[in-house]
Amino acid sequence: MIETQGVELFLEDLRNLCKQNKIKLTFSNYKNVSLGGGMKASGYFDIYNRVLSVAKNRPEWLSTLVHESCHLDQWIENKNKPNSLWTKSDIEGESVLEDYILGKRKRAKTALRNVILIELDCEKRAVKKIEEYELPINVHQYIRRANTYLLNYHRYYELREWKNEEWPLSLVSRTPDKFRKDAFYLNMSKKMRKLFIDNGF
Question: Within the chain, what is the greatest distance between any pair of CA atoms?
Answer without folding.
Answer: 50
